[in-house]
Amino acid sequence: MSGVTSAPEIIANVDLSVDLGRGLVLQNPILVASGTFGYGVEYGDVVDVDRLGAICCKGTTLRPRIGNVTPRVTETPAGMLNSIGLQNPGVDAVIEKYAGTWTGWRTAVIVNVAGESVEDYVEVVRRLDGVPGVAGIELNISCPNVGKGGLQFAIDADAAAGVTAAVRRATDLPLLVKLSPNVADVRPIARAIEAAGADALTAINTLSGIAVAPSRAKPLLGNIYGGLSGPAIKPVALRIVYEVSQVVDIPVVAIGGVTELADVLDYLAVGAAAVQVGTAIFADPTLPVRLVDELEAECRRRGLDSYAPLIGTALPRKPGAPSSKGVEYRP
């Protein structure tokens, strides 16, 4: 009838599942970032962990690490600096203490792995391979490669590809590799990691920064340098996800300053298939689960039975120039 509008379609079920490759299918695209959610068990009394897409557990190394000297953490405008130094009990203790609990969860647990050499990474992953409760691996390659004079794996395409390929040969577990923002052009590194066998990329790790002690006589953090995270880094993370999504075919998981649904939608728009919530968890551990509900509600509001149409809406039709090409002075 003329002048009569039909009622919007009622969406019975919204498909929030996401496939990160090699059989790692998550129930929704809201993950929690490494270093902000412990091993999952620490938040069991305040968060229904089974409602999360996945938990990226605390960084795990071959041997126990006591971490950096204090102070390790300080607040910054719109964020925080941390210099924990990968404090953890070592891979064997992590398996013994937590894997049994992980097997009882519906939510996937992705173990974040760090090391100082290719051999370190490979040995940690070998010990995790086949362990019930371990759903995947996330490589933290923003670590100093002792074999290359302390050069970070993440800032060199050959080094990043080398450690990725070595780990790929050591396991059939789904493999995510975490990109560093501390590079001029991340695209060649992302492509090299993809070619070496990664199933997905996570972007980004923290930015390097310092704070000054109140006395102004020295830097504040005991290790001098810390990793900047929180809302302050979101524009950088958006830029890197935008650039990387244009040049790889594997999923990109975005990290950096997610505090509300609008942030999730922004990352999806620039090509992310999923997001990790990090620093905001310290203020509100219930945020990730709430974002799952809000994303589902947003899909219903738009009449969508899947969140997939929200992915990539802000990407160009063909890959553009990297931001390193005259970002300050464009002709």
3D architecture notes:
The chain has 331 residues and is of the alpha/beta class. Helices cover 26% and strands 17% of the residues. The protein is built from eight helices and 16 strands. It has an eight-stranded parallel beta barrel with strand order 3-4-7-8-11-12-15-16, surrounded by six helices. Strands 5-6-14-13 form a four-stranded antiparallel β-sheet, with no helix packed on it. It has a two-stranded antiparallel ribbon with strand order 1-2. Strand 9 (144-145) and strand 10 form a beta hairpin. Helix 2 runs parallel beside helix 3 and helix 3 runs parallel beside helix 4. The protein is globular.
Name its key features.
single chain, 331 residues, alpha/beta, four-stranded antiparallel β-sheet, 8 helices, 17% strand, globular
Proportion of β residues? 15-25%
> What fraction, in percent, of the residue positions are helical?
25-40%
Supply Rg: 20 Å
Which runs of at least 5 residues are low in confidence (pLDDT < 50)? Answer: none
Task: Write a compact overview of the structure shown.
With 331 residues, this protein is of the alpha/beta class.
Give a topology summary.
Blueprint: E1 18-19, E2 25-26, E3 30-32, E4 54-56, E5 73-76, E6 79-82, H1 91-102, E7 108-113, H2 118-128, E8 136-140, E9 144-145, E10 151-152, H3 157-170, E11 175-179, H4 187-195, E12 200-203, E13 207-209, E14 226-229, H5 234-245, E15 252-255, H6 261-269, E16 274-277, H7 280-283, H8 287-301
